[in-house]
Prior knowledge:
mainly alpha, elongated
Amino acid sequence: MPRHPRANRHSERHRSEHIGWLRAAVLGANDGILSTAGLIVGVASAQASKSAVLLAGFAGLVAGGFSMAAGEYVSVSSQTDTEAADRAREQQELASDPSGEREELVNIYVGRGLDRELAGRVADQMMAHDALGTHLRDELGLSETLRARPIQAALTSAATFAAGSALPLLAVVPAPAAHVAVTVAAVALVALGVLGAVAARTGGAPAIAGSVRVLFWGALAMVATAAVGKLFGVAV
Length: 236
């Protein structure tokens, strides 16, 4: 029995398909761990009580989650607006100057290695199939895979920020009062190292390099906030 044509298709999955949510997820979790842990370390270094430390950490979680969602939504919405403007401009140019738009495609394909005659035939077939989609993809680099999704980015960023923030907050509870800052810093650095490695591997980069660069900035932040707490803090 002949196989259905779809059965012969080679299915491929590329890391770029996940770049939108991966970026928001990694950014949210990293910021959640680092900012909340830094806040806790700074407050704890000022000899604050555990209840005050927990309150500060939880306030940082809530404020940071909303801040991340809002910032991500505004940023990605700006990208969406730009994409919409480019789409409208291409539609107008296709309507007013189709031959000029065809010539643009021909030159693009020639630049990619096709001879002009073949490039012309490819341009004609692609424009007959989906003129706007072809120009958005081949002329401007816009595709459905990389399309900006503001709501998805905002929700992902807020959720992962909250999840990341929960780690240093939970570390406060069992920590001895005199060692809250050290305990939280240690937990945060381990979590940041793991997150950096996982994010790097998911994106196709070496895990060690991803882990080291996150640990460097994480450790620097912990030292800075601890110094601020020691220098300017008073007992609460």
